[in-house]
Design brief:
Layout: H1 4-10, E1 24-29, H2 38-47, E2 51-56, H3 66-73, H4 84-89, H5 92-98, E3 101-107, H6 109-116, H7 123-130, E4 135-139, H8 143-147, H9 149-160, E5 164-165, E6 169-172, E7 178-182, H10 186-202, E8 210-215, E9 220-223, E10 226-228, H11 235-246, E11 250-255, E12 267-270, H12 274-284, E13 290-293, E14 300-302, E15 324-326, H13 330-335, E16 342-349, H14 353-364, E17 368-373, E18 385-386, E19 388-392, E20 395-398, E21 402-403, H15 404-421
Parallel strand pairs: 1-2, 1-3, 3-4, 4-5, 8-11, 8-13, 11-12, 13-16, 16-17
Antiparallel strand pairs: 6-7, 9-10, 14-15, 17-19, 18-21, 19-20
Bound molecules: ligand PMT.
C-alpha cells in the first residue's frame, strides 16, 4: 500500500512555471465507461505538477479499480463517507478545504442529476457542497442521454450554480452511436483545469490588488559561519501568498531563507537578514494595497558580524558575550507611511497570546493581527497546520486548527472585507 508520505516522495518534480504546479486537485470519478481514461488523466495532472486525490462513486468501481487509481495518484482512493479510518486521516470537510479545484471526470447523467439537486448522499456529492474551490465537470454519456431534456435541465442548473462544464467531444462512442457525449481527452481536461483555476483568480475578491508579503526567518550573522535565527519554515507565508494569488492579487513575496519552492505566479525576492528584508520591503511597498508581515524577523542582530570565524576564548571561563543591537521594525515602518497600505501582521506568542496580540496590533499600527500560540503542539513554526485568532479594529475571530492553506484562505477573505470597508 502507498501512503501519503510515499505519495510526496514519488511525486514528479513540477515545473514551477506550470499553472498546476503544487495545486491540489480533487478528482471525482463516477461510473461511466470513460472512467477507463481516469488513470491517464491522473498521470497527466501529476505531470503538470498537481497533487491529485481521487474520490470515486460506487459506480466508478465497476469501470476502474481503486488499486490502479491509487498507484497512479500515489494516494489511497477515497470513496466512502462513512469510512472511519479515512475520515480520521483527513475528514471530508478538511478534504473539501484542501482542494484548489474539484474536477469530476467522467460525470455521468446520474451524478449530474444528483449534483443539480444539491444532494449529499455519498462522499463525492458531499465534497461538492462542502468545497469553496471551483468545480469543473466533464460529462460523459450516450448521446441520447446527453441530449435528453432532463440532462439539459441539470446542466443548465449546474452552470447557474457556478459549475464549469467541459463540453463533451463528438465522435464514435463505446455504445456504437456517434455524437456528442464523449469525455474530452485527458490533455484537454488538464488545459481546462488550468484555465478554470486562473479564471477563478480573475474573478477573485483581490483581483487588481497588489500584495506584498514577507515569510520565513531572517538570519543575523555572527561571523562567516554562524548566525542567529528561528524555526520559521515559511509555510504559513507561502500558503498566504498562494491564497492571495488565487484570490486574484498580484503578489510579491519577500522571503527569508527557506526550503520551499516559489508558488507559481508569485514573484519571490530572496533575502537573508532583517535589514535586507526591511530594504526589500521599503523598495516595493509604495505601490501596494496590502502588506502582510508573516516573517519571523529577528528583533536583534549582533552589533558587528566578524569577518573571520570566531575562535574559542579559553581565558573567558566558558562564557562568551555577544552585543546585540535592535533591528528595524519592518511592519511598524510600513504602518507609519503616509499614505499606507492595509497593514496585516502576525504574532507568535507563547503565553497570554490574545492580550499580547491586542497590544502589539495597537503599538505597531496594524489593521489586522493574526495570532498563533506557538507553545501549542503541531501548530505554528514548521507545522502544516495552524490555529489562529484574528483581531482587527472592532472585531475578532477564532479559527479551528486546520491546514495552513485553509487558514490562509480565511485570512484573505477577511483582508478583502477590510479593504472593501476602506
Ligand atoms: O513559517 P512557519 O514555519 O509556517 O511558521 C509560521 C509563523 C509561526 C512564523 C507565523 O505564523 C508567525 O507567527 N509569524 C510572525 C512571527 C513573529 O515574528 O512574530 P512577532 O510577534 O515577533 O512579530 C510581530 C509582527 O512584527 C510580525 O508580523 C513580524 O513580521 C513583525 N516584525 C517583527 C520584528 C521586526 N523587527 N520587524 C517586523 O516586521
Amino acid at each position: 500500500m502507498t501512503d501519503q508520505t510515499d505519495a510526496k516522495k514519488d511525486a514528479p518534480i513540477p515545473d514551477p512555471r506550470s499553472p498546476l504546479a503544487h495545486r491540489h486537485i480533487l478528482l471525482g470519478v463516477s461510473g461511466g465507461i470513460a472512467a477507463y481514461k481516469s488513470p491517464w488523466l491522473v498521470r497527466r495532472l501529476r505531470d503538470a505538477g498537481a497533487e491529485v486525490q481521487v474520490v470515486t462513486t460506487r459506480g466508478a468501481e465497476h469501470f476502474v479499480t481503486a488499486t490502479t487509481l491509487q498507484a497512479v495518484s500515489g494516494r489511497p482512493v477515497r470513496s466512502d463517507l462513512w469510512d472511519p479510518a479515512a475520515e480520521a486521516a483527513m475528514g471530508h470537510i478538511e478534504l473539501a478545504r484542501w482542494a484548489d479545484l474539484l474536477l469530476i471526470a467522467p460525470a455521468t447523467a446520474d451524478l449530474l442529476a444528483r449534483l443539480a439537486a444539491g444532494r449529499a448522499d455519498d462522499l463525492l456529492t458531499t465534497l461538492r457542497l462542502a468545497t469553496r474551490a471551483p468545480v469543473l465537470l466533464a460529462p460523459a454519456m450516450n448521446v441520447a442521454m446527453w441530449e435528453h431534456p432532463a440532462t439539459r435541465r441539470n446542466i443548465a442548473q449546474l452552470a447557474a450554480d457556478g459549475c464549469h462544464i467541459a463540453e463533451p467531444d463528438q465522435g464514435p462512442m463505446a455504445c456504437g452511436e456517434f455524437g456528442p457525449g464523449r469525455m474530452p481527452e485527458p490533455e484537454a481536461l488538464v488545459a481546462l483545469a488550468a484555465r478554470t483555476l486562473s479564471g477563478a483568480a480573475a474573478r477573485g475578491p483581490l483581483r487588481g490588488r497588489r500584495i506584498l508579503i514577507t515569510a520565513g526567518p531572517t538570519r543575523e550573522a555572527i561571523d562567516p559561519v554562524r548566525y542567529i535565527s528561528n524555526h520559521s519554515s515559511g509555510k504559513q507565508g507561502y500558503a498566504l501568498a498562494a491564497a492571495a494569488r488565487d484570490a486574484g492579487a498580484e503578489v510579491v513575496l519577500v522571503s527569508g531563507p527557506v526550503a520551499l519552492p516559489a508558488p507559481p505566479g508569485v514573484a519571490v525576492v530572496a533575502v537573508t537578514s532583517a535589514e535586507d528584508m526591511h530594504r526589500a520591503v521599503q523598495q516595493r511597498v509604495a505601490d501596494c494595497d496590502v502588506y502582510i508581515g508573516v516573517a519571523a524577523v529577528a528583533d536583534y542582530r549582533p552589533a558587528t558580524a566578524a569577518d573571520r570565524k570566531l575562535k574559542k576564548q579559553p581565558d573567558r571561563a566558558g562564557t562568551m558575550t555577544l552585543t546585540l543591537v535592535e533591528n528595524p521594525d519592518i511592519v511598524a515602518a510600513v504602518a507609519a507611511r503616509e499614505p499606507r497600505p492595509l497593514v496585516v501582521g502576525f504574532a507568535a506568542e507563547t503565553h497570554d497570546a490574545l492580550a499580547h496580540a491586542r497590544e502589539k496590533r495597537q503599538r505597531k499600527g496594524m489593521d489586522l493581527i493574526v495570532v498563533n500560540d506557538v507553545s501549542e503542539a503541531d501548530i505554528g513554526f514548521g507545522s502544516d497546520d495552524n490555529r489562529v485568532h484574528l483581531i482587527w479594529e472592532g472585531g475578532e475571530r477564532a479559527l479551528e486548527k486546520t491546514g495552513k492553506d485553509a487558514v490562509s484562505r480565511i485570512i484573505i477573505d477577511q483582508i478583502a472585507e477590510l479593504l472593501a470597508r476602506r
